[in-house]
Write a structure and sequence with these properties.
- The chain is mainly alpha-helical and about 350 residues long.
- The relative contact order is 0.10.
- Among the domains are: about 90 residues, Ankyrin repeat-containing domain (Serine Threonine Protein Phosphatase 5, Tetratricopeptide repeat); about 80 residues, no CATH class.
- Helix 4 runs parallel beside helix 6 and helix 10 runs antiparallel to helix 11.
- Helix content is about 45%, strand content about 5%.
Length: about 350
């Protein structure tokens, strides 16, 4: 074939491609539609969008990329789809969270194992929340054991220097606390406020853990009384309307009919949780399963963070509460209805 004929053939191929109706960017999902579909496990939609050219690291409006959302949901098949198309298992969302942290927070042991086998970093550099922090705070002992067995740093510190053991002490995770100590956790480690595991255990009325982490100081601490260690703030019941409004917003977003009125009603209900409420039923609340956590924070104002835990009691009864301990530092942004990130208060 002559050079002129080759050029003509190339131009013809280009013309055919232009006129073939190739998918346009407008056909790809927006962040809200993407999140709703991946959370719902719509693998057909995910595959179709990826086939049309969607970036495998495209981030939804909540949680993060498709791989992160799938890890949150424990959807191995969805995770595998995004990974097979090039998704980064160690990519962090705008809050600094990775897929492994989401899976750990939700207690998705199979997803944690899957991610580790595909190169997910089990430890992080510097003062960063780790998957072990998340699993410990949420009380997922199976995941904690899995992470430690794979080399998780039991002395890892969160963004304000709080140790994993401090999380166990705060939340009354006695078995996990024992496991952490046996694995080399430092019971005297302090955060940037000078607080340690003993203080958190005493403050949150977990004397068995207090004795465990500081047997030489426990007697004196017990004589001081719990009040000497500051007020404990636990999860408290909240109106079921929050969960109902959240579900309604998610459905509205997926259909493209989310209104300002519905958004405002949701945030008004969430804001009501910041008001003083009745004393919590500590033991009953402690047995509930954390469903999600909504966080507001600023990196330049580490004392102004707030966190709202949403619990799942039994099969479907939702409970929500507020956590006054500072949450991981996050960049401030205009509030948007979102599925809470998998994180915990420090």
């Amino acid at each position: 074939m002559t050079a002129s004929r080759r050029l003509a053939a190339a131009l013809l191929a280009a013309a055919l491609a232009i006129g073939s109706g190739a998918p346009a960017l407008a056909e790809l999902p927006d962040a809200a539609r993407f999140s709703a579909a991946i959370e719902a496990g719509d693998i057909g939609a995910a595959r179709g969008w990826l086939d049309e050219g969607l970036d495998p690291n495209f981030a939804g409006e909540r949680i993060g990329t498709g791989l992160m959302i799938a890890a949150w949901e424990g959807n191995i098949r969805m995770m595998a789809l995004f990974w097979s198309r090039g998704a980064d298992v160690n990519r962090a969302n705008e809050n600094g969270e990775q897929a492994l942290l989401h899976a750990a927070w939700r207690g998705r042991a199979e997803a944690v194992q899957w991610l580790l086998e595909r190169g997910a970093a089990i430890n992080r550099k510097g003062l960063e929340w780790s998957a072990l922090h998340y699993a410990t705070f949420a009380g997922h002992e199976e995941v904690v054991r899995l992470l430690i067995g794979r080399g998780a740093d039991v002395r890892a510190r969160s963004s304000n220097g709080s140790s994993v053991l401090m999380m166990a002490a705060r939340e009354g995770r006695e078995n996990i606390a024992q496991l952490l100590l046996q694995s080399g956790a430092d019971p005297r480690a302090t955060n940037d406020r000078g607080e340690d595991a003993l203080l958190w255990a005493m403050r949150h009325d977990n004397p068995r853990i207090a004795r465990m982490v500081a047997p030489d100081r426990f007697a004196e601490a017990a004589r001081s009384g719990r009040e000497a260690f500051g007020p404990a703030v636990r999860s408290v019941p909240a109106p079921e309307r929050i969960d109902a409004l959240y579900r309604e917003m998610r459905a509205a977003e997926a259909d493209g009919r989310l209104t300002d009125n519905l958004r405002d009603a949701y945030f008004a209900a969430v804001q009501a949780l910041s008001q003083p409420g009745p004393a919590p039923q500590a033991e009953a609340q402690r047995r509930d399963t954390p469903k999600a956590l909504e966080i507001t924070a600023r990196r330049d104002a580490p004392g102004e963070e707030s966190a709202i835990l949403v619990y799942e009691r039994g099969a479907s009864e939702p409970v929500a509460g507020r956590v006054a301990e500072p949450a991981p530092a996050r960049a401030a942004k205009k509030p948007q209805p979102k599925k809470p990130a998998a994180a915990a208060a420090q």
